[in-house]
Write a structure and sequence with these properties.
2 strands, two-stranded antiparallel ribbon, mainly alpha, 272 residues, globular
Length: 272
Amino acid sequence: MSGLGAEGNERIDPGFRDYLRFFVASLRKTIILLVRYPVNTLSQFGTILLFFVILFYTGRALAPAAMSDSLSGLIVGYLLWTLSLTAYSGLSWAVTREAQWGTLEQLFMSPLGFGAVMVIKTVVNLCESLLWGVVTLAVMLFVTGRTLALDPLTVVPIAALAVAPAVGVGFVFGGLAIRFKRIENAFQLVQFVFIGLIAAPVDQYPLLKWLPLAEGSHLLTRAMADGVSVVAMNPTDLGILLATAVGYLLVGYVVLQYCQRWARREGVMAHY
């Protein structure tokens, strides 16, 4: 469907099939990059697993009783951490790579709109993070010999809402990458911040529930480690989880849009 825009140019109104086609193309591109560069893919996955193995065996050697008591929480927290890292850093790295390849401006010219392009790329990143999460969880359970409750009707929606604030942070860093280009060093800092948020003692300090990942980590641990179903959880806690997921997503998207307009106004869109 097409018409005339405000400046007299032909305006194309994309339909659902156009969004779906772009999603499939982005997903195919992600798979191709994973397969075409197997050393990079395997080293990325191996690093995540190696870090957990070192953490597990070191903890079991130094404090076996404490490690046994907290092992389920450690597995769930580590799973959420890996999901969050993939979800938040994927968009930022995508923007950085598009700028390096010189194709970032082409994304701005997409008839889908730059915001829709970024959202679809984020959905693709979430699919990739889900793949890594499933494999990582399987390996962690195999290494530790621990079993967890995996009710999909409880775990999937809570995990999705728990990761959503990390996606909002990813929007913010994606916007900063558009404006300032080289922000890789800041990625390292956010990884450690995420660890603190996931381990936040929300039972002792309820206000911490409003921080990204904190309430999601708490409820996901209850679901997977304690076997509590979503219908048995406190409605207030679920409301906070939903509010933080939507709130941080919206704030991140607003910052992303502001940064892309800022970059266009400063004329640095094509710079790198």
